[in-house]
Amino acid sequence: MRVLLLGAGGQVGRALAAALPDAVALTRADFDITGGGPEPAWDEHEVVVNAAAHTDVDGAQTPDGRVATWRANASGPALLADRARRHGFTLVHLSTEYVFDGRKSGPYTETDPVAPLSAYGAAKAAGDLAVRGVERHYLVRPTWVVGEGRNFVRTMLGLAGRGIAPTVVADQVGRPTFAPDIAAAIVHLLDVGAPHGTYHVTGGGEPASWADVARAVFAAAGRDDLAVTDTTTAEYFAGRPDVAPRPLNSVLDLGRAHAAGVVTPDWQESLVRYVSRS
Question: What is the CATH number of the domain that holds 13?
């Protein structure tokens, strides 16, 4: 396959560049999907994988942030969807659980209605809708992404290294998803020619709270002597009206991905490997 990778400088983008060594990998400096610069030669590629996004969830709540997140997460994917229809390539796009409100009692399926709580979630939902208008598309939805770059696990590792015992929210539940596992899932879907559409791809295993994940990080780092204190989302963000609302339930159903042969490694096992390499 002739693959064009966009957003190659991000956490998932770096993992995709490693998993697709023959792809043409472009960072935001090479091509910005929000427009304003020369576009790639679309006809030269059979598949375009879009890992570019505006991921500052709280910053997206500001007036300037709303513009930035809409351009990158809604208008940008709409541009790619238009080019996919014109040039006939398969479009792969990364979504997020922030398109859901987190009020469902069980895991979210690919067919559940979206109800975003934040500006970031609304922009991503709009981008998803544009991508779904492409006949040949894969919309891949991970949660709690961990890769090479700034993320929750690295933050906890930094605290563990400094001997700091943190207070972490315990009422948001989901599963961490490691960037190489997302990349492997996308490569698999493309390689086997899986049916087009939306796929939930997260770490496997039992769902956990952010506080549980923090404890797992501290244990893997050999600092389980430091106690992680539970708190609620409301308590943690009290007095900060600028913070974006988060879905409390980020657990996604993995049945469709498993039916397509996608492997979703247990997040705790992936976490131990990640920490050992950090």
Answer: 3.40.50.720
Q: Is residue 61 part of a domain?
A: yes
Q: Count structural domains, the chain.
A: 1
Q: For residue 102, which of 116, 119, 82, 85 has the smallest C-alpha distance?
A: 116
Entry pTM: 0.95
Question: Quick one: pLDDT band at residue 216, thresholds 50, 70, 90?
Answer: very high
As a whole number of angstroms, the distance between CA 206 and CA 218 comes to 18
DSSP-derived 3-state class of residue 48? strand
Neighbours of 167 (CB within 10 A): 14
Catalytic residue among 120, 138, 199, 274: 120
Over residues 36-65, the pLDDT tens digits come to 789 999 999 999 999 999 999 999 999 999
CA–CA separation, 191 vs 189, rounded Å?
6
The answer to whether 138 is a known catalytic residue is no
